[in-house]
């Protein structure tokens, strides 16, 4: 018994756990190392074994040679990992928005339970939701891979194929000038919006006779919705400037993603306001129900668009990290 | 460039080594003796590659391994099976075909 050889085999054994033929493999390696040490040094000793062990390779590398190299998820399904995670997370996100807005819990038995959530709780819940969606999709694809069956996984074409989101092509001089002009217009728009907001705490005004303008929304909801819109416009301006000056696209993605996240928070806060305190102008009673539904629908639609943009940006950032 | 060459060489060796083992096992041999035989032929292999390969060939029924108690320590001696011999003939045929293709292209193109 040589201690260094037994320690070495013990380490290999650790990485071979779960394999039926583990003892047989270890016996083969022991036999080879003892044979080589004896042949090279006349007789096996701790010192001669140490040299042979070093040449044989690191325990993990040795153990991995016995695995068939079958991937956890077959290469043909790797795209589906992104696709399905994105799709399920989008549905999950929608349920979360419903749970917050309608103050209800949802059960999609046996897969999903979303409790009644406050806005901040919902924001805290999002990363866990994403990870659970990612985990479920990974698990399903893992079992499909293990089954070895020829499975053609479907992908609905009506949805936005986030898997095929591509980075923008390199800019030509003409397109850079156009981007610069666009950035200038966006800057003017942002400046105007900010100055309006600083004066009146809102960017939404209405005029019934085109002479006198008055705020459309009450101060608090007006503030949230104005800030959400301004954040998106300001982020768009920054992103355009970053693109115009050819700076890092990654930075543009981060700015865009951060602005999306802030906009979602602000839209959520706006949705949280009781409807009766929303408008600063009198609305005919017959239009109450209609305006209620259309207001909620509009904000939910904007939230969905922002959420899709956020996921797109995260996909872009994630892909760049993977490429590295 | 060296890295690229290394990885392509590894891929080429993977198939070639299987054929080489089946050829070498015309006579029964144990693992370490095979490594030395390869070395004598000027063909270096990583020792830890041979045993997983022999195990895979054993599972496919191309090779048969048997433990023998020789001298002072047990050794696993490998022998080629009938299925292994048949496979060896098939592989040699493929090898010759590939060799012919390369020779044919080399003759037609002096740059190759």
Task: Provide key terms for this protein.
heterodimer; A: 324 residues; mainly alpha; 3 domains; two-stranded antiparallel sheet; 10 helices; 4 strands; B: 112 residues; alpha+beta; three-stranded antiparallel β-sheet; 4 helices; 3 strands; globular
Report on the structure:
The complex is a heterodimer of chains A (324) and B (112). Chain A contains ten helices and four strands. With 324 residues, chain A is mainly alpha-helical. In chain A, a hairpin with a 7-residue loop joins β3 and β4. In chain A, the strands form two sheets. A two-stranded antiparallel ribbon of chain A has the order 1-2. Chain A has a two-stranded antiparallel sheet with strand order 3-4. Chain A is elongated and about 105 Å long. Chain A has three domains: 62 residues, no CATH class; 90 residues, no CATH class; 151 residues, no CATH class. The model of chain A has no long low-confidence stretch (mean pLDDT 80). Chain B is an alpha+beta fold and 112 residues long. Chain B has a single domain, classed as Arc Repressor Mutant, subunit A (Orthogonal Bundle). Chain B has four helices and three strands. The longest helix of chain B has 27 residues. Chain B is globular, with a radius of gyration of 17 Å. Chain B starts with a helix and ends with a helix. The model of chain B has no long low-confidence stretch (mean pLDDT 90). Classes of the chains: A mainly alpha (324), B alpha+beta (112). Chains A and B meet through α2 of A and α3 and β3 of B.
């Amino acid at each position: 018994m040589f201690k260094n050889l037994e320690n070495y085999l013990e380490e290999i054994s650790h990485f071979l756990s779960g394999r039926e033929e583990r003892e047989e493999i270890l016996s083969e390696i022991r036999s080879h190392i003892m044979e080589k040490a004896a042949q090279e040094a006349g007789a096996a000793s701790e010192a001669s074994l140490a040299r042979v062990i070093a040449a044989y390779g690191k325990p993990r590398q040795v153990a991995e040679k016995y695995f068939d190299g079958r991937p956890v998820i077959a290469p043909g399904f790797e795209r589906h990992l992104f696709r399905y995670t994105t799709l399920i997370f989008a549905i999950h996100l929608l349920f979360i928005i419903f749970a917050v807005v309608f103050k209800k819990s949802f059960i999609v038995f046996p897969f999903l339970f979303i409790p009644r959530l406050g806005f901040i709780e919902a924001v805290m819940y999002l990363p866990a939701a994403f990870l659970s969606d990612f985990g479920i999709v990974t698990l399903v694809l893992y079992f499909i891979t293990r089954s070895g069956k020829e499975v053609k996984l479907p992908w609905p074409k009506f949805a936005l194929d986030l898997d095929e989101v591509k980075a923008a092509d390199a800019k030509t001089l003409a397109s850079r000038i156009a981007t610069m002009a666009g950035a200038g217009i966006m800057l003017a728009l942002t400046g105007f919006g900010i100055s309006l907001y600083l004066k009146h705490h809102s960017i939404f005004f209405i005029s019934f006779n085109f002479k006198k303008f008055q705020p459309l929304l009450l101060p608090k909801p007006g503030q949230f919705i104005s800030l959400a819109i301004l954040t998106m416009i300001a982020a768009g301006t920054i992103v355009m400037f970053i693109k115009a000056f050819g700076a890092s696209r990654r930075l543009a993605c981060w700015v865009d993603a951060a602005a999306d996240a802030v906009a979602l928070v602000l839209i959520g806060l706006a949705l949280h306001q009781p409807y009766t305190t929303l408008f600063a102008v009198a609305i005919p009673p017959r239009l109450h129900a209609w305006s209620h539904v259309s207001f909620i629908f509009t904000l939910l639609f904007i939230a969905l668009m922002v959420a899709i943009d956020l996921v797109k940006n995260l996909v872009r950032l994630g892909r760049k990290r993977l490429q590295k | 460039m060296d890295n690229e060459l290394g990885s392509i060489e590894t891929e080429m060796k993977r198939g070639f080594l299987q054929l080489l083992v089946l050829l070498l096992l015309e006579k029964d041999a144990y693992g370490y003796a095979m490594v030395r035989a390869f070395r004598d032929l000027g063909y270096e292999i990583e020792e830890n590659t041979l045993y997983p390969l022999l195990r895979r060939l054993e599972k496919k029924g191309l090779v048969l391994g048997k433990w023998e108690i020789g001298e002072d320590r047990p050794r696993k001696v490998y022998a080629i099976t009938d299925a292994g011999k048949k496979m060896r003939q098939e592989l040699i045929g493929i090898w010759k075909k590939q060799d012919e293709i390369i020779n044919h292209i080399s003759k037609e193109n002096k740059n190759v």
